[in-house]
Amino acid sequence: MVSLWVYLVLAAALFSIGAFGVLARRNAIAILMGVELMLNAVNINLVAFWRFVRPDGGSENMFGQVFTVFVFVVAAAEVAVGLAIIISVYRSKRSVIAEEVDLLKW
Amino acid sequence: MNLVNEWGFVGLFMAIGWIFPTLPLVISWFVRPRKKNDIKVSTYECGVETVGDTWVQFKVQYYIYGLIFLVFDVEMVLLFPWALAYSSLDFFAFGAGLLFIFLLADGLYYAWKTDALVWK
Amino acid sequence: MVGCISDLSACLIDAGIGPGLAGFLETLVGTLIVTLLPLTLVIILVWIERKYSARVQDRVGPNRVGPFGLLQPAADAVKMITKEDITPAGADRIVYNIAPILSALSVILIWAVIPFSPVHIGVDLSIGVLYFFAVGSVGALAVMLGGWSSNNKYALLGAFRVVAQLISYEVPNILAALMPVMIAGTLSMQGLVHAQAGMWFAISLPLSALLFFISSIAEVGRTPFDLLEAESEIVAGFNIEYSGMKFGLFMAGEFLHVLTIAILTAVIFFGGWLGPGVQEVPALGWLWLAIKSTILYLLALHMRSTLPRVRIDQLMSFNWKFLVPLSLVNIIVVAFLFKLVQELGLTPAADETTNIIANLPQTFILLLGNLAIIGGVLVYLRGLGREQRLANEMAAAVDEDVEHHPHHDEEVAAAAVAD
Amino acid sequence: MNIEITFETITFAIFGVLTLAGGIGVVTTRNLIHAALYLIVSLFGVAGIFILLAAPFLAAIQVLVYIGAIAILIIFGVMLTRGMTHLPERFNRQGGLAAVVVIGGFVVLLVGVILPVWGPNGAVAAEAQPIFMTTRDLGIALVDKEQFVLPFEVASVLLTAAMVGAIAIARDDESRD
Q1: What is the span of the domain harbouring residue B23?
Q2: Residue A42, in any domain of the structure
Q3: In the predicted structure, residue D148 carries a pLDDT above the cut 50
Q4: What's the rounded Cα separation, in Å, for the pair D30 and D52?
Q5: Is A105 domain-assigned?
Q6: Full-prediction pTM beyond 0.90?
């Protein structure tokens, strides 16, 4: 039997890897991929808590799964708009390196 | 736990399934001829020497189709639990589904009217 | 011995093998059968396909190797295996080799959830339908990888087009499968077949069946939607750099995919293994499923040999401007009617679901709704077609005018001056 | 702490390794297409974890949405930003600092996870119970007046807004009216 904390450790590790990708990568698309990893770590946590804390079934105890589904929705929206912005920036600046896109910086 | 039985089978299926497509490749590796030369491994683009990088700039149209698909894909994922539970729900659930699909169609309508669906 | 066919593990336990091992052996045998079956079938499929399209085109087809050319696919396989395998320069080797395996695997994996008879199914997953779509979506990925790793502009361009087509047609495909799920109230494949014991979904939901079949054909990339190859027009699409057995695997996957979608249509809409005598002799289910799926398969083959190919802009418009809106309307109408039927108490009682008479009111109302949509669409298309034809005729008439009276404009100007 | 070798632990180990190895591949690979492929491996591992957690529906939509749609969209995005796939430097100037911060954060998380509540001797080290037919319950919860029907509709609004916005942003200038 794999216990809850093992899943939580896995999720924490995945979240940290994703966070490193977001903080350290230069390419904006790679940063987006890091965000995806972080969202997936969150999903593992949500489902693990649902499985171990409210596992009785029944439609009143579906919080974990419902929230995971909404994370899917948000992830899809985030990727769609994020990539659109990156493509748009690339078209005008010929670059997708995050630190070179600094129009709003001073 | 029937979960193990069900998905254990799928796991076994995945483990065994890829052997069969790989097998002919392995047999082929033993019997096929090996006579490589530069012309043979060159990129096959109408016999003319290939020009530039393979990574030509692609039309943004592909991305737009991909993104409309992504949105519909996620919406369908939300509709499946709805459909599954539908027979045990009341008319309110129909209203919820109707509004959901109407909002979905709204986005499609926008894409249609702004010619985002036209292949250019 | 007959008992072993329907319940192998019980038979093995009788023979003195421990229950745990017997269960594992049963799973293993089942897996082997379900993986080997499609691979043996593909050899026959190639022959049927070539013979059938040859007959349609007034040719003889393969007739040299073996009786009626039956051994031709075997000869093809030997040829493929002994061909030199060329990896183009600059290709991404690992991805290049994985792509064809993934492509064939994505089709074979679908067979894990196909119910062949009441007792024979790889595994009756609680989410069988979604499993099928999930595995199918890996096929698009395989195409993408194959096209990208070849380091060839045309392969990459071809892969982009194919993937755009595959993902587009996945939308109506999944939306059409939503209707049977809604009425059956289950995602499991066996559950869907059992739900059709009273009435096939193809009769109560003909529009969904039609949408599912059409979009499945497009998913497979068959004529009239075979822009990914268009073998009579261009050299090849994403698989242009592939040779030998790797190319063979892409082709085998495609041949098998056609049969797979025929079987799935039969299972989801045409009652799967249901037929006379199945309750007494479960193995008869194989026969009924084979008959139904063969008819659908031959229909797909006939479409391939007789229909012309569409252009890519038509392909995309057909999907996004016709199939998808139609699917959405279909969902709303069927959901409304189904709820109405339930509120009116016309659904068959729990113990009468297999009774045809008890299913008739529900079927009748749903069928009527479906026919109303189809009729409405036909009337709308007729109006649209007439409008376009008139517009075309007007344009042609103006053109003719201009040709016949080159000084038309001057005449008009002169008349205006005279006034 | 003794680890039983069962079917479940082996499966967990396989999928856990796939998830983490894929994740490391994503953040360290120079070639962005390879990074996308590692992302697919990682997400597939997460799908396996969902199955272990008795949520096969989520596993299926994980494959359907992430591998079938998001990964393909990311690959499209990579292809559309040509010339940016093989950057000479993978990481930016804060790369080292980021590594330190992330490792520190991971340690904090680890301590937080293992020690107080959910750890080996924690209070809620609950045993998982067998569960049946959760997908139908999910559907009921999603359109229940008392529960999630509003988020359900708002999700549709969000997706439609994302679609409209992304189309408006991504289109070529000359094709804009």
Answers
A1: 2-41
A2: yes
A3: yes
A4: 32
A5: no
A6: no
Q: What CATH number did the domain enclosing A18 receive?
A: 1.10.287.3510
Length of chain D: 177
Query: Are C55 and C88 found together in one domain?
Result: no
Q: For position D176, what pLDDT does the model report?
A: 45
Is B85 within 8 Å of D136 when comparing Cβ atoms? yes
Q: Over 90: is that where the pLDDT of D19 sits?
A: yes
Residues of B in contact with C313 (CB under 8 A): 118-119
Count of the separate structural domains present in chain D: 1
Rounded to 5°, the CA angle C365-C367-C370 comes to 110
Please report which confidence band the pLDDT of residue B47 belongs to, taking 50, 70 and 90 as the band edges.
low
Window 129-168 of D: residues touching B by CB (8 A cutoff) are: 130, 135-140, 142-143, 145, 149, 152-153, 155-157, 159-160, 162-164, 166-168
Q: Is the pLDDT of residue B1 over 50?
A: no
**Which residues of chain D lie closer than 8 angstroms to C148, CB-CB?**
33, 75, 79
Judge whether residue C118 has pLDDT over 70. yes
State how many domains chain B has.
Answer: 2
> Is residue A106 in some structural domain?
no
pLDDT at D171: 80
What proportions of chain A, in percent to the nearest 5, are helix, strand and coil? 80, 5, 20
**Does B117 touch chain D if contact means CB atoms closer than 8 Å?**
no
Instruction: Inspect the interface and report whether the beta carbons of A76 and B74 lie closer than 8 Å.
Output: yes
User: Residue A31 falls within a domain, yes or no?
Assistant: yes
Of A26, A36, A81, the CB nearest to D166: A81
- Whether A20 has its CB under 8 Å from any CB of chain D: the answer is yes
Q: Which residues, in sequence order, are bridge partners of residue D91? A: A25
- Between CA C304 and CA C226 the distance in angstroms is 9
Q: Between residues 22 and 41 of chain D, which touch chain B (CB distance below 8 Å)?
A: none
ipTM for the complex shown: 0.87
SS3 D129: coil
Lookup: tokens for C60: 């003889």
Chain C neighbours, 3+ Cβ pairs < 8 A: B, D
Dihedral, CA of residue C143, residue C145, residue C151 and residue C155, to nearest 10: 10
CATH, residue D83: 1.20.120.1200
Residue in D with minimal Cα distance to C188: D133
To test the contact with chain D by mutation, choose from C95, C138, C189, C339 the residue with the greatest count of D C-beta atoms within 10 A, namely: C138
Mean pLDDT of C241-260: 85
Whole domain around residue D15: which residue ranges? 1-91
Judged by CB atoms closer than 8 Å, whether chains meet at D143 and B103 is answered as no
Q: What is the pLDDT of residues C31-44, one digit of tens each?
A: 777 777 877 788 88
Torsional sign, CA A87, A92, A97, A103: negative
Which range of residues forms the domain containing residue C305? 83-380
Which candidate in D7, D64, D143, D171 is best for mutational testing of the B interface (most B CBs within 10 A)? D143
Measured CA angle at A73 (ends A67, A77), to 5 deg: 145
Q: Chain D partners of A95 at a C-beta cutoff of 8 Å? A: 84
